[in-house]
Amino acid sequence: MVITWYGQSCFKIQSGETALFTDPFCKEIGLTPPRGAANVVTISHQHKDHNNYDALTGEPLIIKGPGEYETKGISIKGILSFHDNKEGKERGTNTIYVIEVEGIKICHLGDLGEEKLNDEQVEEINGVDILMIPVGGTFTINGEDAVEIINQIEPRLVIPMHYKIPGLATKLDGVDVFLKEMGISKKEAVDKLTLKKKELPQEDMEVIIMRI
Hints:
mainly beta; 3 helices
């Protein structure tokens, strides 16, 4: 499996010839939208920085909400959550996705705004290997909230997303705020993450910073 980050909440998860994209964004946010052929696209919510599946080619299965889906050897579960901490009254709903590829369970939290997951959500997410979590605040949880949710989920790998990077027009916190909350002083970024299930950390959780 190869994971690539395009910025915001957009990742490409490549397994063999199959490509799954999460939350593709539009150019108006200041970053270059993802390109390429997609087999599956997950959309956490209908905001322009998360739902630009027209940027991708092919005839992908486009998943836009809660439910259970299966295609090309990939299992996907969409879980209802909120884009704010007021049960959606400010920014509506958000879908958390649990994606199982090559025996590895990935949880993409989308634009989660809830400061804490409820027991049912934690149970649905249980057993996740890789957690993709927003940390930039403003429109999602911030670095401090992210640490609390990481403690609830207890993944093996954590990949922060949806934070300030060069070119992004949206005002968000940088990843350094999250790293400080995690007690990490500095972390080298990687271009891509290539891994197999047997290579996942077995004891201590690891944070991976990605560059676009």
